[in-house]
Amino acid sequence: RCFRHSHPSREPYSCHEIVEPRTDVIKKTESIQTFSHSGKCSLHKEKLTLYCSDCSQSCCTKCKSMECHRGHSIILIEDAYSDLKISLNNSLSKLDNTQAHVTTSLKCQRDNLKDMQVGITLTYNGLLLQIVTYMKSYLMGTLTTSYNY
């Protein structure tokens, strides 16, 4: 599965499943980026200190008491940042492990391919030797028969 914006459309990638980035991660990242740029609520002009997990957006203490966030899971924005950072680090770790596994598998397949190529070459040479030996024997037999007549 590949992201459209980072994926060439030519071989060998043309058969890959194209996916877009996860919207929940994008929303969290954008919300935290908004916080880091302005740090103030656009409605109440207060400092953004909270994060609504249900809406995936930063909010101020006044926003928290509004109807649109009532009953939602509200956490400190620093905790949301820490959670997102941990989640991204876990994803990065999984990607690193997957990359290592793919690299190892690719090396193993290349080694197997080399072994198969050696086996095919040995079989080819063996068959060629059998054909040459048979042809020599056949021609020698034909010459001997012709010479005797």
UniProtKB/TrEMBL annotation:
Describe the location of the B box-type domain by residue ranges: 36-77
Q: Which Pfam families match?
A: zf-B_box
Say if the entry is tagged with keyword Transmembrane: no
Q: Which keywords does this Swiss-Prot/TrEMBL entry list? A: Metal-binding, Zinc, Zinc-finger
Asked if the keyword Zinc-finger belongs to this entry, the reply reads: yes
Give an example GO molecular function. zinc ion binding
Q: What is this protein called?
A: B box-type domain-containing protein
Which organism is this protein's natural source?
Answer: Mytilus galloprovincialis (Mediterranean mussel)
